[in-house]
Amino acid sequence: MSLTPLQTLVQRRRSIRRFRPDPVDRADILACLETARLAPSADNVQPWRFLVVDDPELKARLCEAAFSGIYRRSRFASAAPVIIVLLAKKDFLANRLGRAVQGIAYYLIDLGIAGQHLALQAEELGFGTCWVGWFNLRKTRKVLKVPRKYKIVALMPFGHILKRPSRPLTRKPLEEVAWWNKVEG
């Protein structure tokens, strides 16, 4: 079975941890943000907000604060010329009520979908990204002066790829993760 163009794009997209220092044209970033903006969301709340950090001085301060101490493992993101901060503006009905009744934080699902749209658009344009959830949240909020009404969900380094991972993409076989009409295993 041959892959569809979307499957090929998804299979090619990898978490990039080595970036070239070249600046990124804002038009390319805007194209990715536009694709993310088109994502679906619970009750059409559209909780995503994107803070693009491309000022070298601010990015250096952000990376020093976000990736110090126990968060050093994520320091690779400092090499990217751009850090996109994924924020959620939580809505009462879809988020608080939904979480209380269903036990699901819908804004996290919504941000995940929008962030993946962004990552796939970046891949199609030839850029690399990586989801980073391991960072100092408190210091990140302070450096970027993010108001409390926004929840910082993730950081996404963004830039030209220096090196793509060479190891093959490994995933469980479809038969192990998808079933018809009843849960198996």
Please give a structural write-up.
With 185 residues, the chain is of the alpha+beta class. It has helices at residues 5-12, 26-37, 56-66, 92-102, 106-125, 137-144, 174-177, and strands at residues 48-53, 82-89, 127-129, 150-160. The longest helix is centred in the middle third of the chain and has 20 residues, at 106-125. It starts with a helix and ends in an 8-residue tail after the last helix.
List key phrases describing it.
single chain, 185 residues, alpha+beta, NADH Oxidase, four-stranded antiparallel β-sheet, 7 helices, 40% helix
Q: Using DSSP, what is the number of strands? A: 4
Helical fraction: 40-55%
Low-confidence stretches: none
Write the H/E string, N to C.
HHEHEHHEHEH
For this structure, what is the CATH class? Alpha Beta
By CATH, the superfamily comes out as NADH Oxidase
Largest sheet: 4 strands, antiparallel
Specify the structural class.
alpha+beta
Rounded average pLDDT: 94
Tally of separate domains:
1
What is the CATH T-level topology? NADH Oxidase
Residues in β-strands, percent: 15-25%
The number of helices is 7
**The CATH architecture:** 3-Layer(aba) Sandwich
| General form | globular
Strand order of the largest sheet: 1-2-4-3
SSE layout and pairing:
Blueprint: H1 5-12, H2 26-37, E1 48-53, H3 56-66, E2 82-89, H4 92-102, H5 106-125, E3 127-129, H6 137-144, E4 150-160, H7 174-177
Antiparallel strand pairs: 1-2, 2-4, 3-4
Helix pairs in contact: 2-5, 3-6
Summarize it.
The chain is 40% helix and 15% strand.
